């Protein structure tokens, strides 16, 4: 039916409304809630934060190394964390892409993903990025870049994941609570 609100939805690609004339109010409310995100939330998506962390780690390693913990070739052992970390993150992102799930941490989710990598961890993308950053810090060979891994962990755990869990609980209710009970946040 033309007036059925089921015909009103936002496309996951860009948040653009696809609707009939009877869903204008819902569309306006959704767009307004998306625009109420802070500038930091809109800009500081996870990949941007990872790049900022990498650049900061590199600068700290060169300008303020604190202590050299590993010399070449031992520091290259960090690659054993870099590549699996990237594989985990991209594998989890691929799972999202396959079903059209929302990737952006400060937007409402469209789907609850509980299979594949999400069966073992509720946050495999962040877990993979922490492995990646830890491996990169080891490759740099000094102690100071490891502090940035800790900063990334705290931001991911206390800001990104906390926000995502609130949204997931609100949108999926008991299904998400059951998922939380059986699947650890990290590992």
Keywords:
7 helices, mainly alpha, disordered N terminus, 2 strands, 2 domains, 187 residues, two-stranded antiparallel sheet, Four Helix Bundle (Hemerythrin (Met), subunit A)
Any overview of this molecule?
This protein is mainly alpha-helical and 187 residues long. The protein has two domains: 1-36, no CATH class; 39-182, Up-down Bundle (Four Helix Bundle (Hemerythrin (Met), subunit A)). The protein contains seven helices and two strands; from the N terminus they run E-E-H-H-H-H-H-H-H. The chain has a two-stranded antiparallel ribbon with strand order 1-2. Strand 1 and strand 2 (17-18) form a beta hairpin. Helix 3 packs parallel to helix 5, helix 3 packs antiparallel against helix 6 (144-172) and helix 4 runs antiparallel to helix 5 (124-140). The radius of gyration is 20 Å and the shape is elongated.
Briefly summarize what is shown.
The chain folds into 2 domains: 1-36, no CATH class; 39-182, Up-down Bundle (Four Helix Bundle (Hemerythrin (Met), subunit A)). Helix content is 59%, strand content 2%. The protein has helices spanning 24-35, 39-43, 46-63, 79-99, 124-140, 144-172, 174-182, and strands at residues 9-10, 17-18.
* Name of the CATH class of the largest domain: Mainly Alpha
The count of strands amounts to 2
**Structural domain tally:** 2
Terminal CA distance reads: 46 Å
Unreliable spans: 1-25, 27-32
Q: Beta fraction of the residues?
A: under 5%
Order of helices and strands: EEHHHHHHH
Provide a count of the helices: 7
Profile the largest sheet.
2 strands, antiparallel
Kindly provide the radius of gyration, computed on alpha-carbon positions and rounded to a whole number of angstroms: 20 Å
What structural class is derived from the secondary structure elements? mainly alpha
The coarse overall form would be: elongated
Query: What number is the mean pLDDT?
Result: 83
Instruction: Assign a percent range to the helix content.
Output: 55-70%
Q: Which strands sit side by side, in order, in the main sheet?
A: 1-2
CATH topology of the largest domain: Four Helix Bundle (Hemerythrin (Met), subunit A)
CATH architecture of the largest domain: Up-down Bundle
């Amino acid at each position: 039916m033309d007036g059925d609100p089921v015909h009103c939805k936002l496309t996951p690609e860009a948040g653009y409304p696809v609707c009939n004339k009877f869903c204008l109010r819902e569309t306006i409310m959704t767009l307004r809630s998306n625009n109420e995100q802070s500038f930091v939330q809109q800009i500081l998506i996870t990949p941007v934060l990872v790049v900022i962390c990498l650049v900061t780690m590199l600068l700290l390693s060169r300008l303020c190394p604190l202590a050299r913990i590993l010399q070449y070739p031992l520091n290259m052992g960090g690659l054993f964390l870099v590549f699996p970390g990237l594989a985990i993150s991209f594998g989890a992102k691929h799972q999202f892409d396959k079903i059209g799930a929302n990737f952006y941490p400060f937007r409402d989710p469209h789907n609850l993903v509980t299979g594949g990598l999400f069966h073992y961890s509720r946050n495999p993308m962040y877990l993979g990025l922490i492995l990646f950053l830890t491996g990169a810090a080891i490759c740099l060979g000094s102690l100071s870049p490891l502090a940035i891994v800790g900063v990334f962990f705290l931001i991911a755990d206390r800001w990104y994941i906390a926000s995502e869990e609130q949204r997931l609980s609100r949108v999926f209710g008991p299904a998400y609570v059951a998922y939380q009970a059986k699947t650890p946040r990290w590992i």
